[in-house]
């Protein structure tokens, strides 16, 4: 009978226990895994040699910390894009390569890849998982594809059209507050603070049909949303706290958990209340009642939507999508609006031209509020918004992880497993794409000039199958708010020049301060 001998290890027969064999098998498996990963790493290093890279900051940290999230960091990105206009590679620590994409020809290949080939990189988004669940931002695979198809009708113009009244009402509240503050003349305001509350006010009404009056008095729910955003930003800059088990032991992690519970409880309560309403009425009666108010909110759409097999979203999925829309919708729109007001304050000639366009559109109308058909009648104001989104994109980067090799137009290959960072800010400031990229020039978006450029040169809402599903909603709100603001106020630059600060969205250090001067009695 064949006997197992471990004498070559210096172990006699008694030592040849099942536990020792299990240990040897486990060690062999770990060694094989290590060798496979080491081979894959060195193979990737060899294949990545075709991507240029700036000098490393440190032998261990690589390029980590070399481009800080500050004004200087954005200037450094602009310089890197000028030096490497087709993109470049950086090391996050000793073993994590990132490909930075900043040219439309390269960006197109990755963004146009299917969501299965280039899903979002989990490292950049996992810190939001407890808050947002498996909503469109964080889900992947078949679940993401199914939800994307189911949610697309929620952003059809028939759903968006009634939101115009909500946008008008929310900006009227903002302007009435500004009028009260400006009784003695010009006032100085942090645009982010005021416009963030206004966008949150609009979103609560559009998503939940709930009016918290958050622009006029404190709201626990709104304060919690702002706290979650601040905690997420703070955590992003603390590398070791990206591990959940460590983060949730810290005071900030415990605050984050409490805040998530409060936000989830609010959303769950709205969902259950709406379920009760639906159970008391037929769907036809429910829709007839909604038709009287002329608004079908986001929760209604989520509750009524079905996939191809007639399956509805679970309550957990509805909560995730509603919380995701609330998170993605308030800060990005507030950033876009704040920066376009800043750019128009710095360029009074463009501001005055926008104002005349709005005055001409609304000259025979009382009250002077925006209607759906007006949105297409503001070509120059739209050009000004787009140029501001180019110069100051609210979201400066998005990331994708390649699940298979991706061939670029110039013959280079991005290896499987590598994370690509689509640098929206870098693409928008690439001098090989945009002449004089630091100059604010709305005429770049004249229809004739647009024809000369790649569609991927301008990507404030990302691009491809995972682009922003709510971009029409956001553009509509920005047009309404900007048009009525310029109709009623003159926006003037502050004495101090703002210093840009890329966080979850593009902010300004210490706030984005502008001066506001009333032109009329405000909303009628």
Automatic annotation (TrEMBL):
InterPro entries xref list: Cyt_P450, Cyt_P450_CS, Cyt_P450_E_grp-I, Cyt_P450_sf, Cytochrome_P450_Monoox
GO cellular component: endoplasmic reticulum membrane
Key word Chaperone present: no
Keywords: Endoplasmic reticulum, Heme, Iron, Membrane, Metal-binding, Monooxygenase, Oxidoreductase
Gene3D superfamilies according to UniProt: Cytochrome P450
The keyword Electron transport is assigned to this record: no
GO MF term list: heme binding; iron ion binding; monooxygenase activity; oxidoreductase activity, acting on paired donors, with incorporation or reduction of molecular oxygen
Pfam family, one: p450
Annotated localization: Endoplasmic reticulum membrane
Needed co-factor(s): heme
PROSITE patterns for this protein: CYTOCHROME_P450
Residues that coordinate or bind heme: 468
Family: Belongs to the cytochrome P450 family.
Name under which the protein is recorded: Phylloquinone omega-hydroxylase CYP4F2-like isoform X1
Organism whose genome encodes this protein: Pteropus vampyrus
Recorded name of the encoding gene: LOC105311420
């Amino acid at each position: 009978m064949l006997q197992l001998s471990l004498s070559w290890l210096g172990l006699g027969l008694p030592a040849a226990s099942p536990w020792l064999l299990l240990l040897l098998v486990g060690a062999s498996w770990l060694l094989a895994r290590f060798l496979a990963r080491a081979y894959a790493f060195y193979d990737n290093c060899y294949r990545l040699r075709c991507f240029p890279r700036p000098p490393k900051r440190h032998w261990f940290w690589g390029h980590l910390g070399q481009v800080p999230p500050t004004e200087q960091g954005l200037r450094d990105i602009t310089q890197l894009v000028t030096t490497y206009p087709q993109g470049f590679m950086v090391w996050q620590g000793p073993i994590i390569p990132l490909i930075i994409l900043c040219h439309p020809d390269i960006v197109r290949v990755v963004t146009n890849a299917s969501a299965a080939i280039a899903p979002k990189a989990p490292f950049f988004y996992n810190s939001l998982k407890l808050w947002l669940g498996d909503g469109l931002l964080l889900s992947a695979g078949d679940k993401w594809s199914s939800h994307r198809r189911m949610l697309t009708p929620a952003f059809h113009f028939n759903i968006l059209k009634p939101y115009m009244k909500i946008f008008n009402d929310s900006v009227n509240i903002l302007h009435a507050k500004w009028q009260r503050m400006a009784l003695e003349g010009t006032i100085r305001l942090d645009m982010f603070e005021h416009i963030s509350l206004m966008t949150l006010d609009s979103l609560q009404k559009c998503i939940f049909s709930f009016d918290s009056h958050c622009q006029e008095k404190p709201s626990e729910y709104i304060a919690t949303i702002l706290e979650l955003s601040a905690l997420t930003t703070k955590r992003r800059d603390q590398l070791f706290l990206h591990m959940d088990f460590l983060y949730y032991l810290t005071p900030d992690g415990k605050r984050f958990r409490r805040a998530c519970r409060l936000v989830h409880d609010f959303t769950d309560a709205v969902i259950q209340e709406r379920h009760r309403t639906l159970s008391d009425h037929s769907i036809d009666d429910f829709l007839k009642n909604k038709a009287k108010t002329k608004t079908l909110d986001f929760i209604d759409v989520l509750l009524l939507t079905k996939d191809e097999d007639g399956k509805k979203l679970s309550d957990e999925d509805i909560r995730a999508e509603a919380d995701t829309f609330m998170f993605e919708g308030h800060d990005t729109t507030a950033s876009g609006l704040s920066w376009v007001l800043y750019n128009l304050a710095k360029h009074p000639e463009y501001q005055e031209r926008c104002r005349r366009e709005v005055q001409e559109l609304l000259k025979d109308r009382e009250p002077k509020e925006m209607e759906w058909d007006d949105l297409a009648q503001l070509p120059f104001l739209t050009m000004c918004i787009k140029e501001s989104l180019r110069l100051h994109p609210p979201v400066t980067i998005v990331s994708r992880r390649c699940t298979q090799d991706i061939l670029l137009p110039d013959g280079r290959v991005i290896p499987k497993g590598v994370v690509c960072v689509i640098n929206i800010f870098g693409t928008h400031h690439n001098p090989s794409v945009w002449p004089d990229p630091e100059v604010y020039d709305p005429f770049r978006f004249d229809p004739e000039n647009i024809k000369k450029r790649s569609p991927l040169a301008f990507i404030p809402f990302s691009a491809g199958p995972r682009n922003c599903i709510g971009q029409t909603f956001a553009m509509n709100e920005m047009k309404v708010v900007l048009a009525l603001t310029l109709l009623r106020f003159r926006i003037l630059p502050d004495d101090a020049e703002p210093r840009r600060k890329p966080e979850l969205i593009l902010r300004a250090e210490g706030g984005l301060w502008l001066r506001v001067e009333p032109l009329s009695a405000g909303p009628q």
